[in-house]
Known about the structure:
A: 49% helix; globular
Amino acid sequence: MLNKITGHEVDRRLLLKGAAAGGLGIAGATMLAGCAPAASGPMSFGARTVDESPTKQLEALVAAYTAKSGNEVTYNATESNAFQNNLSQYLQGTPDDCFQWMAGYRMQFFADQGLLEDVSDVWDDIGSQYSESYKIASTGLDGKQYFVPQSWYPWGLHFRKSMMEEIGLAATDVYNWDDMLGALKELKGQGLIGLAAADKGGWEAQGTFDILNARINGYQFHVDLLGGREKWTDDRVKEVFRHWEMLLPYQNTNVLDLEWDGAMQLLLQKQSGFFMMGSWFGGNFLEQSQEDYDDLMIIPFPEINADHGRDTVDAPLDGFCVAANGGNSGVGKDFIKFAGDMEGVQAMLDTDVPMTSANNGQDKSSYDAFQEAQQAVMDEAKYITQFLDRDTRPDFAGPIVGPAFQSWFKDPSSTNDILESLQSQWDALAPL
Amino acid sequence: MNSSTTLDPAPKKAPKAKRRRSFSKRDRLTLGIFIGIPTFLHVALVWFPAAATIYLSFTYWTGIHIGDIQWAGLANYENIFFNTPIFWDALRVNVVWLIWFGAIATPLGILLAYQIDREIRGSKFYQAAYYLPVVLSLAVIGVIWNFLLRPDGLVNGLLGLEISEAVSFFGDDRYNIWVILTMASWRHIGYIMLLYLAGLKAVDASLREASSIDGATEWQSFRKVVFPTMKPVNIIVIVITIIESLRAFDLIYIIYGSSGGLPILGVLVFQNIAGEGASMKGAAYAVILFMLSIVPIITYLRAQFKEDVK
């Protein structure tokens, strides 16, 4: 870690931060030091993934940029959790010039700390290729843009067409809550799991909470709750958990022993009818086989309260930022512009790794059936949310909401206690 | 030992003070470097971060700009003690861990050492077998056992269970802590065994012989003769047992990540200090963990040394 320190001030900061984490000999603090190697070419790019499909995509983007501009790009990949845990150290040290990140609160926080480069001028050039809502999601608290979107994906109910056909269930007709419970009952009757669920990672179940809350109480309440303007102890939140409890009998029982990929296996192996997840895992199905991928389908989470219909969807936006402390932020900005421009997007699409680009220029007529279904889920929604851990304070989502939902799975009858505790933990958060 | 007695500045002990002759310049320089550099490194890398952590635990800070540090008084501690149920869950796991190590794993290691020391047939084989896990880090042990016990792992595979029916070794509160403790003990027992074995080898065989001639049973001779002669090793073993139980981190982190599936203080420190969720609540957790480890150890060591002085 020490060789990454450049200036004196950074040195003190890093030491203090490192001190807080590692001072008392917590072995894991060494993980903080797992930074990506320093830039060696004219610019470097930091990928937030080591998975096969997205890596293929990003490497194609980098290669296309090098071919066009002649600038050599060093490609550094870090596993996504490690990258996230390390981000503030990374950005204060000698980060890659351009790196992969997420829109919304998670970007705004770092922009606010002066760690991201203002890319408003890039938006002046390529902004016309994006819809207004994506621009808003890319904008920091000061009204400037700090982010260029790459792709989006909706959260929804995924299922396998062939499996539903065999059972004789018209899954696409599942429109409201009663339809859903009926379908789940049918699946259970066949000896199958209705809804594959996981929460070992602490974040997976947050998607189910988001959508239940938005369906029952509407977009505004959901956003206000996550922003701290409504209370967790509100009866409306209890209603969310009352509905969630109705789903439990149809879920696999080892929710806390499975991470998202374990639950995905349940769907892949046709042990489970539905799987509530972000559509990004389609790439994993494709890695299995084209046949598995073609069998995959998504529908919006059903309507519960007719007042709100199916008007909200969690559709996180992934993309790129330019680091303020990078060695060559000029080239970084040039790169991010290329990545956001249709030319760069096309380079990624040409890899044939499925991607729903945020760029309006992507030829939607070339969408496959699964991508069309994702688009339909998006089109039906009026309001787009990012995801619980992107829409609320990070010191609340990770360390507090995650374990709270996990303990709810252990004892669903403790809803009231858990909600009271969530509220009091929110109230006790450090002032911003 | 010699050099420290020569350096002893206490002039009260008259005979030793005589030996405090003047050093040549060269000696001073050498000593200065030999002591100065390690002291500097120690202060810079251990004491400074520790003091900074203690200070930061009384502040609000996101860990980025020094200027943003705000004094918070006891707020972080208040938050942990009164508002954070997971703290008490984690403390419970750490305490169970400590009791398990103290009452089961450590005594088992001592028992194994004692058996092997008697050079029963194949003792070399047992020694190697029990010691083998110690060469692995807890992180590696976590990876190995995770591979065996996860829902799509070897054990559930051999039992012929599908993922959905798999025994929930890590997710079910009824047994996850015992699974973890078994994994941790697998290594801890071998560690204690080796330490104790080294100590036993140093016990004069004639002591044991004498006690058996006096008609002491095996247990009596261990309890009354061998155990007390092993006092220095016993102290090390106790201190190690306390430290290993409280600092537990890697094993849990490998299996659960920082999600809190089985909360433990070490992971709470990390979860609250790393990543985007950084707050000085993590520093406060670290201080609590530090106090929990240091207080019993200091108390115990002081009592021991007082006895020695007598």
